[in-house]
Amino acid sequence: MKQHLTNAIAAIGLTAMLSACGGDDIATTPPEPIPAGADGATIYQARCASCHGEDLRGTDKGPSQLSIVYEPNHHGDNTYRTAIRNGVAQHHWGFGNMPAVQDITDEQIELVIAYIRAQQEALGFER
């Protein structure tokens, strides 16, 4: 009985983490495959925009990537790599924990980071 309760609690926690962004379907619906040779913008739209906004300005599910909080001296590229690969506990915002991004390669992560940094440079940071 105790093991069943432990498993149930773990399943609830995992479901909550996976549904923190993008709705309840994240836990049950695999993401669409990313086309071979996709650029950073395409990968961002496929894996990040549902929470962080098509224009990087956030949604009700995730923060703007143009916030001054994400400037390179505060959240460097390694922070992005870790968050994308492993997820991250909420610490600046009230959106909940960010789950790890599913079905993304290390090369695609680098392309996404380069795209975000280029957009930050072009559009500037919001305060």
Output the CATH homologous superfamily: Cytochrome c-like domain
Strand tally is 0
Q: Which CATH architecture is right? A: Orthogonal Bundle
- Cα separation of the termini: 51 Å
Could you tell me the strand content as a percent range?
Answer: under 5%
Instruction: Summarize model confidence as the mean pLDDT.
Output: 84
Overall geometric form: globular
Based on CA atoms alone, the radius of gyration comes out at: 16 Å
- In the predicted model, the low-confidence regions spanning at least 5 consecutive residues are 2-20, 22-27
Element-level helix/strand string: HHHHH
Percent helix:
40-55%
Label the structural class: mainly alpha
User: Would you state the CATH class?
Assistant: Mainly Alpha
User: Do you know the CATH topology?
Assistant: Cytochrome Bc1 Complex, Chain D, domain 2
- Report the major sheet: none
Total domain units: 1
Description:
The chain is mainly alpha-helical and 127 residues long. Helix content is 45%, strand content 0%. It has helices at 2-18, 40-47, 49-52, 77-86, 106-123. Helix 2 crosses helix 5 and helix 4 packs across helix 5 (106-123). The longest helix has 18 residues, at 106-123.
Short description:
By secondary structure, this protein is mostly helical.
Question: Which key terms come to mind for this protein?
Answer:
mainly alpha, Cytochrome Bc1 Complex, Chain D, domain 2, disordered N terminus
SSE topology:
Blueprint: H1 2-18, H2 40-47, H3 49-52, H4 77-86, H5 106-123
Helix pairs in contact: 2-5, 4-5
